[in-house]
Amino acid sequence: MKKNRKIACGLALTTVLSGLAGLVLAETPRTQAQYEADPAAMIEAYAHVEVASVSDALEQVLHQKRYMSHKMQSIFPAKFAGFAVTVKMVRQEGADSAAVSGMLAAIDAGKPGSVYVMTVEDGADIAGMGGLMGTAMFARGFKGAVIDGGVRDLPQLKRIGFPVYSLGPVPSTAVGHYRFAGSNIPVICDGVTVNPGDIISADQDGVVVIPRARAAEILVAAEKLDNTEHSTLPFIEKFRSIQEAVAQFGRI
After folding, report:
1. Residue 36 · residue 216 · CB < 8 Å
2. Residues of the chain with pLDDT > 90: what percent?
3. CATH number given to 67-210
């Protein structure tokens, strides 16, 4: 009986240790090479790291401004990341409905995990998308949309929980005023160049664009900044000194 108890205790201890080992492994940061080899894990990680940390990492590594301005606002608080599907719309008064069909085709061709990025020429007062397009994106597994223009049908978009960043809500339509000028091409969205396949990361602080070729490198740097900041917060709460915290962790 005692022997059986020892065996049982040994098995239990082995199980606990195995579980702890699993937790340690799960918390071990991934390397740049690991992220490059696993794009799905990279996107999942971008969906958790703060956009402010990503923006800082982009500035430190690339020495570039890769964030959109304060004008780009979400219709509700949201956080997402995904690969860009780009669409460009240009002015053409009197264009028939077929002139915008390309922007719809880009949605139907989009893969789950995509982010729809549309530029609407001089489109602050033109809705680049609304409830129908948003519902289609939602049904196809898009993570969200970023529209350098307006958006409409907010009740429907909020009902299904599909996040959209735009220049603001407007009731207008692009049909009859715009034509499709290309998809999955480089576009300028609120002053930032977006190439198809770039990573879009968004949260309540705004939207950043990460070049696909440097995405893993940027992510590793952003995670380090994020971890440092999250370690700094309890230090400030305990010692009530921002100067001591900055001296200790070097993050502000």
Report:
1. yes
2. 74
3. 3.50.30.40
Q: How many CA within 13 A on the CB side of residue 198?
A: 23
Question: Would you kindly state where each structural domain of the chain is located, as residue ranges?
Answer: 1-30, 67-210
Cα–Cα distance between 60 and 228 in angstroms, integer? 15
Q: Are 204 and 159 in contact (CB under 8 A)?
A: no
Phi-psi bin for 94: left (phi > 0), alpha (psi -120 to 50), beta?
Answer: left
* DSSP for residue 153: -
Long-range contacts of 135-141, Cβ-Cβ distance < 8 Å, separation of 24 or more: 135/160, 135/162, 136/104, 136/107, 136/108, 137/107, 137/110, 137/162, 138/162, 140/107, 140/108, 140/110, 140/111, 140/112, 140/114, 141/111, 141/112, 141/113, 141/114
List phi, psi (to 5°) of 60: -70, -40
* Model pLDDT for residues 58-91, shown as the tens digit of each residue: 999 999 999 999 999 999 999 999 999 999 999 9
- Once rounded to an integer, what is the mean pLDDT over residues 9-13? 40
